[in-house]
């Protein structure tokens, strides 16, 4: 089967990633029929973690900190529901790539007319820039907190991040996955220590996991809730996952595809459970430390950094927070840059050198970040972080609807088409996302009307 990018998967020999991600397809071997569960799981594990890093990027930090300090544990339910939505949608994304051999962008290019797919591509590029903007700001803030580097210079230094990705990709896809998992362990470890120091109320956490009507009725709370959804269910991750699951050399028959779907779904669900822990940990930390002390105004990452040590009574509390932020920013860079390459090749069939595609994405994010950091300082960067996540949420329907439509189409999926129950669940998720966005638009229009 010839890919939309012009790469024949059967002709691709195992080698490191070069200019195009499809060149890494079918390069990670899978153990044979007699291999045990854990060997198979180890071979398939990886793509889910690459996707999961986008669910805990610095944009999540901004929305989770703002939500926890202002509203306590109330928005924990939004994080939980968003994560469940993400698990369902990422499972559909993986299934699309495994069954059809096309990523979501390629499927859109094959299905829609040129004007529609150009519009979808532009919307996706906007989401990628918004995501990369959050990573640029988060990394710059971490550099400022740890080393005293001014925000503007920190933003400019983030342009060098692309060199890390290029170096790892030249060594092979498994090296890239190992780097991501190592940073995830650092982030998770830092927050485990922070939560132990904060000693949050277990009863309050359990209560926060139950949705409340005020989340929708309170415009300020809804704004943060939409930001959390935008920061959690990342639209470009749907494109990314449908592509990178194809790096595994599974058997191209119904049995092999069924096994690949099962392990890919398990991989992404485990990885997203880690993302759930980290996102919840940020909000819980803000609720237990700031909201409980009456500091409901803490929304800037810098404020949280400066307040953690005196409020938790341990000198390393702030340092751990900043180290986790730096790891988060570095990790999330991979998501946006790989996704940018996938959507450009998939929608437009344009192949740019890997370094050039990454540099373009990063420069488009650096320009507004430098402008805001220079003009408004810390307060401006915090607002820009939250706004970037709301932009992501507005783009979600334009990625989710095609994904659900394609995976529910028997002509495209054959025996792997979504079951009736899964179709209903997927369309309910899509409807909830669209309804929440319309409600936010109405509230914002009312504020300016």
Name the features:
single chain; 449 residues; mainly alpha; Hydantoin permease; 19 helices; 77% helix
Please tell me the overall pLDDT.
82
Low-confidence stretches: 1-19
> What is the strand arrangement across the widest sheet?
1-2
Can you tell me the CATH class? Mainly Alpha
Percent helix: over 70%
What's the story with the biggest beta sheet?
Answer: 2 strands, parallel
- Structural class given helices, strands, pairing? mainly alpha
CATH superfamily: Hydantoin permease
Q: Write the H/E string, N to C.
A: EHHHHHHHHHHHHHEHHHHHH
* Number of distinct helices: 19
According to DSSP, the number of beta strands is 2
Could you explain the architecture of this structure?
The model is unreliable at 1-19 (pLDDT under 50). The chain starts with 27 loop residues before the first strand and ends with a helix. The radius of gyration is 21 Å and the shape is globular. It is built from 19 helices and two strands. Helix content is 77%, strand content 1%. 53% of the residues are buried. It has a single domain (18-392), classed as Hydantoin permease (Orthogonal Bundle), CATH 1.10.4160. The protein has helices at 37-44, 47-52, 58-71, 76-100, 104-111, 114-147, 151-157, 161-171, 173-198, 202-208, 214-217, 219-232, 235-244, 254-291, 301-312, 316-348, 354-407, 410-413, 420-448; strands at residues 28-29, 248-249. Strands 1-2 form a two-stranded parallel ribbon. Helix 3 crosses helix 17, helix 4 (76-100) packs antiparallel against helix 14 (254-291) and helix 7 packs across helix 17 (354-407). By secondary structure, it is mostly helical.
